[in-house]
């Protein structure tokens, strides 16, 4: 997804309102039929200071202008019937509220800190997030699908001042073959037994599901929220988990034990809403048996030796031996989740892989090693260093995608800026005299 061009300056962190100095709610600006209150401006300034964000220029000029830009987008979205779904808003509200609880400690402490009920906080967040998502959708509509040709990229590159051409750090491409050591029947039964005990403890009233999740779940991201995941659609969940979660209809009910690629779960329904569920879960990850790990290492050691002796290629070995579904269709080539490309800076690779690749030569195949995924699963793998690009000044032959992204960003920015200038001309704008003596980015706010 392309990065949006203008900050939205929305008071997502509502805590700033609890500590802002009391401001008389006078109208500072009017854009179309949308007012910008003095309290809106004070709140946004407090939010940015709370988050230690630097404001370039006079905040009483910069902030109102950014809020006014937001109002332009929202007004046009209404005309164009651009709406965001309630499920999109709900998902982000739940995520933001979970963040507050994680930072402050509990729902009760959140209410005390904000001096508002959870219901009031959710309501404010919902309005703010709906505006944010509406602005994003409107910007996407304005930008559309900008087509950038190779000729555009080369023209842009040739016109760039030499001191503005970016420097590309060293990057590598890595191919991988992974095997998951088999989990013994005894270990699987140990995990299932523990999960059955947790279910019985909750059903008998001896324990609370959320407390058990905090204490024992190995999904540490959700464990801090008592195992709660927030509202999720079926498509956001792995199939086995989704089937179990969506089979629950009564809040508080606990699912059967579910096995997924991440481990073993039990799931408790919190609430269903349309096509989404909010649930808690407890994840337990089986321990890998030392003998099974050694067997996987021996198998991959043999595969690596056969590749080195040209009995078959790494790519052929991927198709026969690798259990990594994410790379099986790309000859084992890993993809960078940050940009979707096959190139990584060393520090962007998972630590175990980065340490192995660091001193390898292009074409070299590693010895087998253990790799722990970000989900906690233990795998045995071998890697091949497919390519290495040394640190260099960007050029169209090696860095076409990087330069294309720059051209796209500039083209989008130009489209948005021109749209704002045109929209200023046809929109009613009133600015309180005390806000008029500003050097605005877009002078068209003040009409003669």
Automatic annotation (TrEMBL):
The keyword Signal applies. GO terms for molecular function: peptidyl-prolyl cis-trans isomerase activity. The keyword Isomerase applies. It holds the Pfam family Rotamase. Keywords: Isomerase, Rotamase, Signal. Residues 169-271, 274-384 form the PpiC domain. It comes from the Bacteria. Residues 1-20 form the signal peptide. PANTHER family: CHAPERONE SURA. This is Peptidylprolyl isomerase. It comes from Candidatus Enterocola intestinipullorum.
